[in-house]
Specification:
503 residues; mainly alpha; 2 domains; 20 helices; globular; disordered C terminus
Length: 503
């Protein structure tokens, strides 16, 4: 069985527009980020630093368990649906994903007494239980949304995503103000909203129960999903283990400080991950390595251009934003450097996502898992080395260096017959100047006058960002020139002989 292109909306072309209708899906996925950004300042003022830190650590743990509960089935759904003329096999995989998510969640619920004390949740048992129960519907929703995305069913996708992203935040806040200001109460509100969203998704998708015994399809999904789950677990360790290490070394109060800065700096990383998920069907639909390479390098360069004003704007706005999202007890002034370092890691993340799309379509899940594990170990080692010396700044620096290592490793293992162009020199210079300017702004005193100037300059980055975005939307329509033209001629030559990627 070969993949000759998806039967749905994704054209098999290396010049496929990436910033059109896809951005609607990214917007829906971004609702969770937007809601968290709005709610976090409220929580920091309502909850104690210890409670907010425990919530941040519990969410990091939830992310780890969610990877195991998801088991990469969402990626398998995209590949299965993109290579089939109907959605029966993919709907069967949705049923498989839901069952796996509930089984994994049940195992962790039963085992709570064995490890909650060692992870520092002894006085937060109810919070821990709620966050773990949060896992099953969250993983199920992600599998459902993967199918809705691939079939371009935006309205039900938006409905499920909105309930999951906003419903829990709203209900949790209501419970905090109506019942009592308790972090566990807030978490239970999220549990209820996730289950409602999952039920709506199941009604819309109508998962095929027969898929539970469709062993060839299940085996293909599991053989892809287990390595990707390991990669996802390593990714969570890479991006979230720093909070666990900080809690062990410096306590939950420092976790709370780091979490506030991480929320501000990682906004762009989260958006990149959402965009990565939205673009996955495009890569799955392309029949040749040459076309995938062309799309991957073009998407990487477009993301770099968008990241230039974004990094500068976030760093400039950080002193003012930190004072809004955190009270004075969080000591926000030194956290500006943490925001800069976290935001800076978006560049290697963009490079990693570009090459990762190709590796996923090539079903090289074991390679992704091994490389991500190496990067996670680098992150852990650097955290243990740097946190005792320079505190939370060390965690941010360790994470940035680990992301850069992962991007480099993934680039090295791409197929040898795949052309891979470096970014244009002008773009590399622009990125370097942006990083230098953003870093230099941290050295400016954080007085009221200078913070106002910084904020005004940050706002001035918005037109620059939208100009870059519009340029990215128009780029695919341009006639390829230079080396790109040669690459497209190679696409036409190879497309006649390439047999596609076996499912």
């Amino acid at each position: 069985m070969t993949m000759e292109g998806a039967p749905g909306r994704y054209p098999t072309s290396a010049t496929t527009p990436l910033f059109g209708r896809d951005m609607l899906y990214t917007l829906v996925w971004s609702l969770q980020l937007i809601a968290a950004t709005i709610v976090s300042p409220i929580l920091t003022h309502v909850l104690s630093p210890a409670s907010f830190g425990a919530l941040a650590t519990a969410i990091a743990l939830h992310q780890v368990i969610s990877v195991l509960a998801l088991l990469g089935i969402d990626k398998a759904v995209v590949l299965e649906r993109s290579g089939a003329s109907d959605g029966n096999a993919a709907r069967g995989l949705v049923a498989v994903g839901i069952v796996i998510s509930f089984v994994v969640t049940l195992v962790f619920v039963i085992s709570i007494p064995l490890w909650e004390e060692s992870l520092g949740f002894g006085s937060f048992h109810s919070l821990l239980l709620a966050v773990i129960l949060w896992t099953a519907p969250t993983a199920a929703i992600q599998v459902v949304q993967a199918l809705l995305l691939t079939e371009d069913r935006f309205r039900p996708f938006a409905l499920v995503g909105t309930i999951a992203a906003i419903g829990g935040q709203v209900v949790g806040l209501i419970l905090i103000f109506v019942v009592r200001a308790d972090v566990a109460i807030y978490a239970w509100g999220g549990v209820g909203a996730q289950f409602v969203a999952m039920i709506v998704g199941i009604i819309v998708i109508r998962p095929s129960v027969r898929g539970l015994v469709n062993w060839p399809v299940v085996w293909r999904a599991i053989s892809l999903g287990i390595p990707l789950a390991f990669a996802g677990l390593s990714w969570i360790v890479l991006s979230a283990a720093d909070r666990l290490i900080i809690q062990v070394i410096q306590g939950p109060e420092q976790v709370a400080r780091y979490q506030v800065a991480y929320i501000v700096g990682s906004v762009v990383i989260t958006l990149l991950l959402y965009t990565h998920g939205v673009w996955a069907p495009h890569f799955a639909a392309l029949p040749t390595n040459v076309e995938r390479s062309a799309l991957a390098t073009r998407s990487r360069d477009q993301l770099y251009r968008l990241l230039i004003p974004t990094l500068l704007g976030i760093t400039l706005a950080a002193p003012s934003v930190l004072r809004i999202v955190a009270p004075a007890s969080f000591a926000p002034e030194p956290l500006t450097l943490v925001v800069f370092l976290v935001a800076l890691s978006a560049f290697p993340v963009a490079a990693k996502l570009a090459s990762g799309q190709i590796l996923i379509v090539e079903r090289r899940g074991k390679t992704i898992g091994a490389l991500t594990a190496v990067a996670a170990l680098i992150n852990i080692a650097l955290n243990f080395a740097l946190v005792p010396v320079i505190g939370v700044v060390g965690s941010a620096l360790a994470t940035t260096l680990a992301f850069a290592a992962l991007a480099l490793l993934q680039r090295r293992v791409l197929p040898r017959d795949m052309p891979w162009e470096r970014p244009p020199m002008r773009l590399i210079l622009a990125v370097g100047l942006c990083v230098a300017a953003a870093g230099a702004s941290i050295l400016v005193p954080q007085t009221l006058v200078w913070n106002v100037i910084r904020l005004a300059l940050a706002v001035a980055c918005l037109p620059w960002f939208f100009w870059s975005f519009n340029r990215a939307r128009r780029a695919p329509n341009a006639e390829p020139t230079g080396s790109s033209r040669s690459r497209h001629r190679a696409v036409r030559r190879n497309s006649a002989t390439d047999d596609g990627m076996p499912l």
